[in-house]
Write a structure and sequence with these properties.
This protein is mainly α. The protein has one domain. The protein is elongated and about 60 Å long.
């Protein structure tokens, strides 16, 4: 199975920008146990990369590698920004 025969560039852009929406819309969420739900909530791009890797690694390993890099960078930056915003809000609440 080749990624490009199944999906287009807009699907790839959508996976990067709105991973949770596309995971739900396309039904890519496997069984509803605790680890998938937690990873879906906190690191959706890495969760999606873990689903896409076994499906497309043989035909598009470079694309999967690039997506893993994008997923790690965006999810880690998102977590760091959430922590920074939470810290800033706590400081504002403490000063008022």
């Amino acid at each position: 199975m080749d990624f490009w025969s199944e999906h287009g560039i807009m699907f790839l852009i959508g996976l990067i920008l709105w991973p949770r929406v596309l995971l739900i819309y396309f039904g890519l969420i496997p069984s509803l146990s605790i680890p998938p739900i937690l990873s879906f909530m906190f690191v959706p791009r890495m969760f999606l990369a873990s689903i896409l890797t076994p499906m497309y690694w043989d035909t598009n390993s470079i694309l999967i590698g690039i997506y893993w890099v994008i997923a790690i960078v965006l999810d880690v930056v998102g977590i760091i920004m959430k922590i920074a915003m939470q810290k800033k809000m706590m400081e504002q609440m403490a000063s008022s």
